[in-house]
């Protein structure tokens, strides 16, 4: 939500009025939550709309109504292929060492997930 709105999770900059981003986000329309500083084409806007819808589901008060991580990855994975980040500026990295791109990390995670499923199946058979 912070990425879409440009706001902090808890904003105490308002006088005597702390704003909880999740509560505010759920009450607003997509057009009202998107950060006006974001400049994007129609495809980017649709990606953000998908992310916003997913974020709303993740903010459900009842935990059993929230999506599990498998669903979250299922929704976000296609967006990884669409989103092509600009080359990061060395100053923007803040000391982060990223040995793999996000698609490479996703592929690695999927392979590990598959190996985990095979291991679980083997354990259940025995």
Give a description of the structure.
56% of the residues lie in helices and 3% in strands. The chain has 126 residues and is mainly alpha-helical. The protein has one domain (2-90): Orthogonal Bundle (Transferase(Phosphotransferase), domain 1). Strands 1-2 form a two-stranded antiparallel sheet. Strand 1 (10-11) and strand 2 (19-20) form a beta hairpin. The radius of gyration is 18 Å and the shape is globular. The termini are far apart.
Indicate the CATH class. Answer: Mainly Alpha
The DSSP helix count reads 6
The whole-number mean of residue pLDDT values reads 74
Largest sheet: 2 strands, antiparallel
- Please state the second-level CATH architecture: Orthogonal Bundle
Q: Into which percentage range does the β-strand content fall?
A: under 5%
Q: Helix share of residues?
A: 55-70%
**Low-pLDDT stretches:** none
Shape annotation: globular
Question: Which H/E pattern describes the elements?
Answer: HEEHHHHH
GO molecular function: protein serine/threonine kinase activity
Keywords: Glycoprotein, Kinase, Leucine-rich repeat, Membrane, Receptor, Repeat, Serine/threonine-protein kinase, Signal, Transferase, Transmembrane, Transmembrane helix
Membrane topology: Single-pass membrane protein
EC number: 2.7.11.1
């Amino acid at each position: 939500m912070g990425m879409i709105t440009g706001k902090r999770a808890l904003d105490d900059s308002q006088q005597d009025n702390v704003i909880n981003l999740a509560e505010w986000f759920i009450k607003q329309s997509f057009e009202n939550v998107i950060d006006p500083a974001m400049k994007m084409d129609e495809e980017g806007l649709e990606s953000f709309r998908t992310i916003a819808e997913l974020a709303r589901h993740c903010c459900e008060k009842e935990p059993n109504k929230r999506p599990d991580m498998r669903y979250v990855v299922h929704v976000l994975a296609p967006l990884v292929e669409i989103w092509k980040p600009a080359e990061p500026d060395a100053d923007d990295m803040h000391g982060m060492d990223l040995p793999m791109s996000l698609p490479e990390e996703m592929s690695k995670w999927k392979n590990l997930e598959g190996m985990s499923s095979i291991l679980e199946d083997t354990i259940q058979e025995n």
